[in-house]
Amino acid sequence: MSIVELDERGRLTIPKGVRRNLDMGGKVLIINAGDHLKIIPLPPDPLKTLHGAFNTEKPFSELRRQAERSAAVEARERRPRADAPP
Description:
By secondary structure, the chain is an alpha+beta fold. It has one domain (16-78). It has helices spanning 16-21, 46-50, 60-78; strands at 28-32, 37-41. A hairpin with a 4-residue loop joins strand 1 and strand 2. The N and C termini lie far apart (39 Å).
């Protein structure tokens, strides 16, 4: 376990030993889990890592558009309505 401080711009430095143990590269996924954050190291080339994981005939651009549409619908459904009571 490590305790780190945020700098004046809100950044934090993950200790070298932690980065080495988790084989962390340049990018991480940060998930707001309510009262804490989850930090998940991402592979250098996520698409290469997933190559062959999905069997589909659809091109990537179409899959991306579908995912973006689904995310937009989900965001609208989760957004509080202006006329809803607090």
